[in-house]
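We were asked to recover a plausible sequence for a given structure. The inputs and outputs are reproduced exactly as logged, with field labels preserved.

PROBLEM: sequence recovery
POSITIONS: 135
GIVEN STRUCTURE:
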């Protein structure tokens, strides 16, 4: 077998490949190709940084003794609420409800609606309390 013939065929094959590659990618312009390769490079860089960070964290976790995590223990009582009682507590009234009210009983709770100054003062003080909370 003649090596010059083989090398000639290899040269022809390489020329054919180099001629067909640009034809295959002729629909992709340089800008699109540059952006695509840049994006791919960025993704690979982010992945490399992520792997290095995770390895450094795993090394730090393996370097510290496991007893360090036992120093901070939250008691179970603080994490979970106590179970509800299985009975209803009795409701104790301080005094029996009245069947009727006298004028003297009502007087501390009753304001005559016709007195407009009282209502203006009440509204003004309520608005001021509200605005103090906003500031």
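RECOVERED SEQUENCE:
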């Amino acid at each position: 077998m003649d090596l010059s013939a083989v090398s000639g065929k290899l040269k022809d094959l390489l020329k054919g490949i180099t001629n067909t590659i640009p034809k295959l990618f002729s629909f992709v312009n340089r800008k699109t190709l540059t952006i695509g390769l840049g994006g791919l490079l960025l993704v690979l860089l982010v992945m490399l940084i992520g792997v290095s960070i995770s390895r450094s964290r795993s090394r730090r976790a393996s370097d510290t003794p496991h007893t360090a995590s036992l120093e901070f223990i939250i008691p179970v009582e603080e994490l979970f609420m106590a179970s509800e009682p299985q009975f209803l507590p009795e409701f104790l009234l301080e005094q029996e409800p009245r069947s009727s009210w006298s004028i003297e009983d009502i007087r501390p709770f009753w304001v005559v609606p016709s007195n407009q100054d009282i209502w203006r003062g009440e509204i003004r003080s309520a608005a001021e309390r509200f605005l103090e909370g906003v500031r």
